[in-house]
Write a structure and sequence with these properties.
The chain has 6 helices and 7 strands, in the order αβαββαβαβααββ. The chain is α/β, with parallel strands linked by helices and 174 residues long. Helix 1 crosses helix 2, helix 2 runs parallel beside helix 4 and helix 4 packs across helix 6.
Length: 174
């Protein structure tokens, strides 16, 4: 992807873009994808889905209007497998500049938790994991200047009923 011209990248982004990056550190992969994300934001209203796995990073850029989901506009979705506090911290740190600059919303969710959630509603262990994840995200968001909201099993954006952690940039000047 690094060999693509700016014009070619623009064409791809306009139609929706999927990027898969291997190698380097997770932070290096995220930094590279930030360049793609910035371009996508310049091209229109997009929902950016980051999936951070061991050894690879996926970025899916969707034109939100194509799906008719207004509340996907100006949001970045970050999925992290497996759940890793240090990795989540690096993701938030890498995204911070973009979030501050664009005043976007960062939504963090744990896909592994979601899978467990479906099969064990009411399970105390699942509730414990939810609380642990929420505490972790709250701590990281305080560190990086975000406030945190929890939408439990939200379906407002047409997505499956999954627990979502929403971190919003807090503008101290307001």
């Amino acid at each position: 992807m690094k060999d693509l011209s700016y014009e070619k990248l623009q064409q791809i982004v306009k139609g929706g873009l999927t990027a898969l990056v291997y190698g380097g550190s997770a932070l290096e992969r995220i930094e590279y994808l930030m360049e793609v994300a910035k371009l996508a934001l310049k091209e229109g209203s997009f929902a950016l889905y980051f999936s951070i796995y061991e050894g690879s990073t996926f970025l899916i850029v969707d034109v939100a209007s194509r799906k008719g989901l207004e509340n996907l506009l100006d949001k970045i979705y970050v999925a992290i497998l497996p759940l890793d506090v240090a990795k989540l911290g690096k993701v938030i740190e890498a995204l911070r500049g973009l979030l501050n600059e664009e005043k976007l919303t960062l939504i963090v969710y744990d896909q592994v938790f979601t899978a467990i959630y479906y099969t064990s509603l009411g399970d105390p262990e699942v509730k414990s994991r939810l609380n642990t994840l929420l505490s972790m995200v709250k701590a990281l968001s305080r560190k990086h200047g975000f406030c945190t909201l929890l939408l439990d099993r939200a379906k407002v954006d047409g997505s499956p009923r999954t627990p979502r952690f929403i971190l919003r940039y807090v503008d101290e000047s307001v």
